[in-house]
Design brief:
- By secondary structure, the chain is an alpha/beta fold.
- It has one domain: NAD(P)-binding Rossmann-like Domain (Rossmann fold, 3-Layer(aba) Sandwich).
- Helix content is 42%, strand content 14%.
- The protein has 7 helices and 7 strands, in the order E-H-E-H-E-H-E-H-E-H-E-H-H-E.
- The protein has a 7-stranded parallel β-sheet with strand order 3-2-1-4-5-6-7, sandwiched between helices.
- Helix 1 crosses helix 7 and helix 4 packs parallel to helix 5.
- The longest helix is centred in the middle third of the chain and has 27 residues.
- It is globular and about 50 Å long.
Length: 238
């Protein structure tokens, strides 16, 4: 860290999907702003690379949590583990997502549908359930969930992904309404089109260089994570 304190100095931030793409960029940026990042991802090696990147820039050492978000029992235990270690959580970034199979709604295999719902909706519900009390222990708890424009505009052949993001948005807005008299601010962030592996899979004919890299959109995440944030129950765009 530089002599000037970061905007998230001494905050405890849980970030899912932290091993790559937007999640990794957010984890690196939060660490650069002084946060201790609890980095959740499926790939241990990629999380270790994140650890190396944060160490190289002098940020606080992250806590690496190799975890499949479909392990709901592990998500339930996460809250207790973080309470024992920190007694609070200041920031939750529910970023991890699954695209699923693109194609006609009637062709989506049930197990693919379930996987998308498990990762995009149910895992975030379990995180809310596990971390709600810890966020309430913060002087300014902040929750940010990554969404997509397909949640609000029907997009053919994106059935499972679109339905899951629509459910996520409504779920977070309901939770936000329940938090009106607390110090927690919960929002959704639509990053728009970003150069990620998910985007490349969904649109293989595109030139990825025409889209911004994940690091280019992290400022909005920082704004929503700061104690000064006043947004609540909103879909915020980059």
């Amino acid at each position: 860290m530089t002599e000037q304190q970061g905007r998230l100095q001494n905050r405890i931030a849980v970030v899912t999907g932290a091993s790559r793409g937007i999640g990794r960029a957010v984890a690196e940026r939060f660490a650069a702003e002084g946060a201790t990042v609890v980095a959740i991802g499926r790939t241990k090696g990629a999380l270790e690379e994140l650890d190396d990147a944060i160490a190289a820039t002098g940020g606080p050492s992250p806590v690496l949590v190799p975890l499949d978000l479909r392990d709901f029992d592990a998500l339930d235990r996460l809250g207790g583990s973080l309470f024992d270690r920190y007694q609070k959580v200041d920031i939750l970034v529910g970023n991890a997502g699954a695209l699923g199979q693109l194609g006609p709604m009637s062709h989506i295999p049930p197990d693919t549908w379930q996987e998308v719902m498990d990762i995009n909706v149910t895992a975030n519900f379990r995180l809310i359930r596990s971390l709600d009390l810890l966020l309430r222990q913060s002087d300014a708890g902040r929750a940010i969930f990554t969404t997509s424009g397909v949640a609000r505009t029907p997009f053919a052949y994106f059935g499972a992904y679109a339905a899951s993001k629509a459910a996520l948005e409504h779920m977070v807005k309901v939770w936000a309404a329940e938090l009106n008299k607390t110090n927690i601010r919960a929002n959704l962030l639509d990053p728009g089109v970003v150069r990620t592996s998910m985007r490349a899979h969904a649109f293989p004919g595109e030139d990825p260089n025409q889209h911004p890299e994940p690091a280019a959109i992290t400022e909005r995440f920082v704004e929503l994570a700061e104690p000064a944030c006043t947004h609540h129950g909103e879909v915020v765009h980059v």
